[in-house]
From TrEMBL:
Belongs to the class-II pyridoxal-phosphate-dependent aminotransferase family. BioF subfamily. GO terms for biological process: biotin biosynthetic process. Residues 30-403 form the Aminotransferase class I/classII large domain. This is PLP-dependent transferase. Its cofactor is pyridoxal 5'-phosphate. Keywords: Pyridoxal phosphate, Transferase. GO terms for molecular function: pyridoxal phosphate binding; transferase activity.
């Protein structure tokens, strides 16, 4: 009976085109990577493997497993040293390492906000923040994505209706991400800080930043978005992950020693879970050493070059306006692109409803890996192909990917005539 119920639900997901089917490794292994979060190509290039093996060589007698939860003997000296290193690297008082960023968010949001506190979260924050809030004790409220007017209204409303908030005895957490993982845009951070200070002058606004998609990519040695802007003091809680630009796995909460100690005392996924094993920690240390090296600097610069190359070529293509006008494809970040000094490697190629799989298939057929994304990963009607640029993508590969995207797009527009050099020649007079 149970199996039948499960099958029915899977079947209806399939009917709606929403069934999640992990990409088969035999398919992705031989494709050029335009999909993964390994944006500095640390993992795919092998540079991280080399650094990792060196790190193992420095600790030939390592104990593989942590053997326990970290509240017993599972906190090795290596883990303690790594956490000190991460705190210094990111300019924080202390650091707390987790097996994943998801775990870190769940631990943070399920414990730190107290009963009576409120969490205001951006509409597009990651599922792990939602999961943590769901298990937490504070009231939660959403404000529209990157919307200062919406945030202001929420803050004013809370101050007016809750004496504890106005008096400063109840905290208001503001949950932001440095780069939103599906839309690749960043919050108007200075204005948001200013609003929180103005409306909550007693200092009970707690700004938090999830840096999953900026860790390693900007700031001194790749230390992140908040560090790049010198705003460490404005964000008492930050969260970085190691599974994206760092190329390995893990998550780290950067906060005061009190918050760190509180999470260790109250987070069930710390107390009742085995601590991280040595290879995970050594890979993270190797990744951070790479970030701070010339190799890291060069890869960051190459990645920014590749992103600019892709964006420039796509948006100046003679048919791009037509493709947008027909609603075939658009990039939400196009409007803000020129004014930003840092560009995220994620390019959301928004398609019409039901078309993302077709575009992804076209690129897969040519051996380029990208990910089509639909509900439940993004809201209904926000379907897209999530393309990610990497430091090791070559200009020739990017050109070919662009050619395929435009070829597919013009087929959708219905006026395709492919030129000999592979770029579509169409009447673009609009
Ligand atoms: C904003 C954000 N936070 C947290 C996570 C979870 O990190 P991890 O993959 O290390 O579990 C992700 C992963 O996609 C993310 O995008």
């Amino acid at each position: 009976m149970l199996i039948q119920k499960l099958e029915e639900q899977l079947h209806s997901r399939e009917e709606e085109g929403r069934l999640i089917e992990p990409a088969p490794p035999q398919k992705t292994a031989h494709m050029t990577d335009f999909g993964s979060n390994d944006s500095l190509s640390f993992s795919s290039s092998g540079v991280l493997r080399t650094a990792f093996l060196k790190e193992l060589g420095r600790h030939p007698n390592f104990t593989l497993g942590s053997r326990s939860t970290r509240i017993f003997e599972g906190t090795s000296q290596y883990l303690a040293d790594l956490e000190d290193h991460l705190a210094r690297f990111h300019g924080a008082e202390s650091a707390l390492f987790f097996n994943s960023g998801f775990d870190a968010n769940v631990a943070l949001w399920s414990t730190v906000p107290q009963p009576g506190d409120v969490v205001l979260y951006d509409q597009y924050v990651h599922a792990s923040i939602h999961e943590g809030m769901r298990r937490g004790r504070a009231e939660t409220r959403m404000f529209p994505h990157n919307d200062c007017a919406g945030l202001r209204q929420c803050l004013l409303d809370l101050r007016q209706k809750r004496p504890g908030v106005a008096e400063g005895s109840q905290s208001v957490f503001i949950a932001l991400e440095s780069v939103y993982s599906m839309d690749a845009d960043s919050p108007p951070i200075q204005r948001m800080i200013q609003l929180v200070k103005e409306i909550l002058p007693r200092g009970n606004g707690v700004l938090t930043m999830d840096e999953a998609h900026s860790n390693g990519l900007l700031g001194p040695d790749g230390s992140g978005y908040v560090s790049a802007l010198g705003l460490q003091k404005e964000f008492p809680i930050r969260l970085h992950t190691c599974g994206k630009a760092l190329g390995s796995t893990g998550g780290v909460i950067l906060a005061s020693t009190t918050i760190r100690s509180y999470i260790i005392n109250y987070a069930k996924n710390i107390i009742f879970s085995t601590g991280p094993s040595f290879p995970v920690l050594a890979a993270v240390k190797a990744g951070y050493d790479l970030l701070a090296s010339q190799e890291g600097e060069t890869r960051r610069a190459q990645l920014q070059y590749n992103i600019a190359y892709f964006q420039e070529k796509l948006t100046t293509h003679p048919c791009w306006s037509m493709v947008k006008q027909h609603g075939v494809l658009s990039i939400p970040t196009e409007v803000t692109w020129a004014s930003e000094s840092f560009h995220a490697p994620i390019i959301p190629l928004n398609t019409r409803q039901g078309h993302a799989k077709s575009l992804a298939r076209r690129l897969h057929q040519a051996n380029y890996w990208v990910n089509p994304v639909h509900q439940p990963l993004v809201p209904k009607g926000k379907e897209r192909v999530r393309l990610v640029l990497h430091a090791d993508n070559t200009e020739a590969e990017i050109d070919e990917v662009l050619g395929l995207i435009m070829e597919w797009s013009m087929e959708q527009v219905g006026r395709t005539r492919i030129s000999e050099d592979g770029w579509p020649q169409v009447a673009c007079s609009i």
